[in-house]
Amino acid sequence: MTVPEIQASEVPDDAYLLDVREQVEWVSGHAPKAVHIPLGELQARVDEVPAGETVYVICRVGGRSYNAAAWLNHIGRQAVNVDGGMQAWDAARLPMVSETGHEPFVG
């Protein structure tokens, strides 16, 4: 199964952005409007992901988000992988926030 991909700079401003990284990664830096559901919790929490719109899935570099997007598409959702993940997001100088009190850091 092929998974649609998009560059971080092309993610629409009003997109439903699903961040599937672990909690420690999330608090260090994430997109301001992203929704956080770690990959390991996605199957149990899939009802929190809207079924009627495209979901843009992001992780650190793109591997976990690719797997999450593939699974979401497999169950009938519309999911797109953000190629390069938060590292590409950061490199594109897109907005990020941190919950640590420090500058956002992706690593």
UniProtKB/TrEMBL annotation:
Q: Does the keyword Hydrolase apply?
A: no
Q: Does the keyword Transferase apply?
A: yes
GO MF term list:
transferase activity
UniProt cross-references to Gene3D superfamilies, sorted A to Z = Rhodanese-like domain (3.40.250.10)
Q: Which residue numbers delimit the Rhodanese domain?
A: 11-98
Source organism (scientific name):
Nonomuraea soli
InterPro entries membership:
GlpE_sulfurtransferase, Rhodanese-like_dom, Rhodanese-like_dom_sf
Q: Which SUPFAM superfamilies match?
A: Rhodanese/Cell cycle control phosphatase
Keywords of this protein's UniProt record, alphabetized?
A: Transferase
Q: What is this protein called?
A: Rhodanese-related sulfurtransferase
